């Protein structure tokens, strides 16, 4: 396959190398601000170096955009008209989901197949083996290509933009867990209870994350008030031990909000995940 | 065993009933503000009703304190002198760890065995089968008694107060997860991606919570800056979708703080869980 890489930072170079090693031809690399290093790199992989998109894109079967997210849509808008119909434009940027959806629509209008690709990990650590999420009409084809270079790739969502949207939703949870782990392990270490905390938390391992999340949300809408007291006590203990909680302050604010909503307008039915979420949306509307 | 219950709210009554059914004799119940209902209840279980501690406590082998946490230490101070040496004082309150440790020391001075007991769940849902954490020199004996009435009970920590301290540390994590689940599932539902989010998060099920926590903390001290950008993007997406994040704001504040610390005073060694926590403590000291 003839491939062009637009944007030659860490991401662009990582996939250029992996695809090249897998037998694909990197025919062109493009960077708006190419330095000496990039020139040498292009030579090394037998690619022509460009500083902008142009008719040279007509020769390629796959364009990989790895520019900064902020210019994802601009780059797509400039590049798509030069591509041949039926080729694939794969957007590896962390552009916002709206821009990527718009890019997908431009691609469709230009007869180009499109995939938005979210890299769910650090390229610097996992290289081309970092897991990918793909959405858009070229998702299946792109997944086949990327799996062949060792990237665990999964199709998600219905439309272009869904992959990056899911990546960010995943981030809410995983980065939240990270922040909680920092505060929690600091506080446990301070009391000499870190090993015991692991044991006391190990029951979390017993239930899949999906049922855990649904259980806590359906009980949150009933018991946020009582649980708020526990959060307040936990926060008091951390502060007393000299830990300055930040993540926990956000957690407490959420419990306070739900607790107020329960007092003003309780959910009267038996909570299910669906009516719990509906109630939370309704409360948010009332509060805004 | 002859047992006294001090504080006859939901917790006191729950364990009075369970212990009574298991063949123990509840010889006395004590509440500073006993109502008609409590009088009937005491009759029903064959217990004498008291409005304060006193010499009647000398007859019992086990005192269960289930008063409000704020008066835990006062009640222990009043009750211990009346108890016989070698009896057990079990503190089921959610008093703060310092008060419970002080109670344990008073008990030791009075020749009474002491356990602090943390109820890690809702009595209203699980009744006497709610899991318990126990610390203090009477922990082993109390665990035997409580297991016999169906309560999964576990010894934790080294000193009185450690059980409730661990319960609150556990709360930091579990209530944090709850808040994150609320925001995350609302945001996913809003985009019609809830089912797919579960799948994208399911890799979390693959690693035990202990190694997950240690991994994110040891990478946090290196990568908080890059990850902060992802948190900011995730937050922007939520707000754009009409979700008002609160927990995520706290998470972002923590990433901002660590990110600033990394810029000013990076951890130069290869991060381990120990030097990562040490570095985090050091940074907190510098910032305070």
UniProtKB/TrEMBL annotation, chains A, B:
<protein>
    <submittedName>
        <fullName>3-hydroxyisobutyrate dehydrogenase-like beta-hydroxyacid dehydrogenase</fullName>
    </submittedName>
</protein>
<feature type="active site">
    <location>
        <position position="167"/>
    </location>
</feature>
<feature type="domain" description="6-phosphogluconate dehydrogenase NADP-binding">
    <location>
        <begin position="2"/>
        <end position="139"/>
    </location>
</feature>
<dbReference type="GO" id="GO:0050661">
    <property type="term" value="F:NADP binding"/>
</dbReference>
<dbReference type="InterPro" id="IPR015814">
    <property type="entry name" value="Pgluconate_DH_NAD-bd_C"/>
</dbReference>
<keyword id="KW-0560">Oxidoreductase</keyword>
<dbReference type="Pfam" id="PF03446">
    <property type="entry name" value="NAD_binding_2"/>
</dbReference>
<dbReference type="InterPro" id="IPR006115">
    <property type="entry name" value="6PGDH_NADP-bd"/>
</dbReference>
<dbReference type="InterPro" id="IPR015815">
    <property type="entry name" value="HIBADH-related"/>
</dbReference>
<dbReference type="InterPro" id="IPR013328">
    <property type="entry name" value="6PGD_dom2"/>
</dbReference>
<dbReference type="Pfam" id="PF09130">
    <property type="entry name" value="DUF1932"/>
</dbReference>
<dbReference type="GO" id="GO:0016491">
    <property type="term" value="F:oxidoreductase activity"/>
</dbReference>
<feature type="domain" description="Phosphogluconate dehydrogenase NAD-binding putative C-terminal">
    <location>
        <begin position="188"/>
        <end position="257"/>
    </location>
</feature>
<dbReference type="InterPro" id="IPR036291">
    <property type="entry name" value="NAD(P)-bd_dom_sf"/>
</dbReference>
<dbReference type="InterPro" id="IPR008927">
    <property type="entry name" value="6-PGluconate_DH-like_C_sf"/>
</dbReference>
């Amino acid at each position: 396959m003839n491939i062009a890489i637009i944007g030659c930072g860490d991401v662009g170079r990582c996939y250029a190398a992996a695809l090249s090693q897998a037998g694909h031809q990197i025919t062109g690399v493009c960077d708006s601000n190419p330095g000496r290093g990039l020139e040498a790199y292009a030579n090394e992989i037998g690619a022509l170096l460009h500083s902008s998109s142009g008719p040279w894109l007509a020769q390629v079967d796959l364009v990989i955009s790895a520019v900064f997210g902020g210019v994802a849509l601009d780059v797509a808008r400039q590049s798509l008209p030069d591509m041949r119909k039926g080729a694939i434009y794969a957007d590896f940027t962390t552009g916002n989901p709206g821009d990527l959806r718009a890019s997908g629509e431009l691609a469709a209008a230009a007869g180009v197949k499109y995939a938005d690709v979210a890299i769910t990990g650090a390229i610097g650590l996992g290289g081309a083996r970092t897991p990918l999420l793909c959405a858009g009409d070229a998702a299946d084809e792109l997944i086949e290509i990327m799996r062949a270079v060792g990237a665990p790739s999964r199709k998600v969502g219905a439309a272009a933009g869904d992959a990056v949207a899911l990546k960010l939703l995943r981030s809410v949870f995983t980065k939240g867990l990270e922040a909680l782990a920092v505060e929690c392990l600091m506080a446990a270490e301070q009391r000499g209870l870190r090993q015991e905390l692991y044991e006391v938390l190990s029951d979390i391992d017993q239930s899949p994350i999906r049922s855990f999340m649904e259980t806590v949300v359906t009980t949150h809408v009933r018991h946020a008030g009582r649980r708020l007291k526990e959060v307040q006590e936990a926060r008091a203990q951390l502060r007393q031990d000299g830990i300055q909680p930040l993540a926990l302050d956000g957690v407490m604010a959420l419990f306070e909000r739900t607790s107020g909503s329960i007092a003003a307008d309780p959910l009267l039915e038996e909570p299910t995940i669906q009516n719990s979420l509906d109630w939370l949306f309704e409360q948010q509307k009332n509060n805004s």
